[in-house]
Specification:
The chain is an all-alpha fold. The chain is built from 3 helices and no strands. Keywords: Ribonucleoprotein, Ribosomal protein.
């Protein structure tokens, strides 16, 4: 249920907001990877969540691009 709520929240965003969200997620992913390398990471499952959120944002960006090209 958590991912469907996240998906509906992301679908409501504009293209610029999706770009900003993608940038924030990539920064978070970098920080999490850095923490993991230094042994400071407490929640290792968060890496997986962030990676999947990045995929969700990219998918939505692609869908919006395709619908804009068609219409």
């Amino acid at each position: 249920m958590k991912s469907s709520n996240r998906l509906s929240d992301l679908q409501a965003l504009s293209a610029d907001q999706l770009n900003d969200e993608l940038l924030n997620l990539k920064k978070e992913q970098f920080n999490l990877r850095f923490q993991g390398a230094t042994g400071q990471l407490e929640n290792v499952a968060r890496i997986r969540e962030v990676r999947r959120d990045i995929a969700r944002v990219r998918t939505l960006q692609r869908q919006k691009t395709l619908t804009a090209a068609k219409g």
